[in-house]
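Suppose a colleague, Dr. K., hands you the sequence of a protein chain of 280 amino acids and asks what its three-dimensional shape might be. Before reaching for any lab equipment, you can write down a predicted structure in token form. Begin with the sequence itself:
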Amino acid sequence: MMKSLFLSFLLGSNLFVNNFSEVQGRKWKGEGTTPNLESITIGRCYDYIRVVNPAVGEKNCSELWEAFRNAFINKDPCNILPQHFELFFKLSLHAIPTDKSLFWENNQLLVNSFSSRARRYMALGDTLFGFFGDFLNWCGQENSTGLDYESCPTAAECENNAVDAFWRMASMTYAQHSSGVIHVLLNGSAEGGAYPVKGFFADYEIPHLQRDKISQIDIWVVDDIEGPNIDSCGHNTVQILEDRLKTLGYSVTCTDNYKPVMFLLCLDNPDHSKCTLSSF
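The predicted structure, expressed as tokens, is then:
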């Protein structure tokens, strides 16, 4: 009996210690650095310059990784600024074809499908620098050259975290090098409206568009196939966006449920009432 009680006590103590250690190891609420981050990013770099878009020419993928990593390691993970990534963006920069830029909010997977890895359009995720970091997570630790695989700060915990700093710089760089006809794909079913008045497009991309390089901005507002229809051209947040762009001096058009995008949605939902021939 005493032996059984002693074993139960030891088991309970070990569970407590393990759980306590796990909590102690997780300093932040967000997911930790993506495992094998170095291998993934270097591999993506080679995939991009050899397969996805060889037209960008030669890039030193190991050098890109070092510039990326040095932007946030050995620093306070809550004090990473966009300019810390300047070298990485300088090394990874390449031309964005005229008339091919595709901005978006609240519909990343749809944009990825529609752009088709830069075959139709070149969204941010279709550039080398966007492709490099898409869907990955990373952060470092102060006074350490290692990555934190246990946890990383969320935007709610600190605004100046490494991931958001990277994407702010990516958004600014992408906007600065976009030209010709600019396309913006918005989700008309997004809760709170298709155009977030505080977001990457509003805060980091629109302010860095080069007015003299842009001939027109085409806005496409597309609802989810199941709806609801919350926002549309000339209404709610889309009207706010149209007014802002026109005030800045841009020529703006707006189309609801842009047919080429609707065709793409209907590939996955062929029997939906919105996908009948009469609907088009």
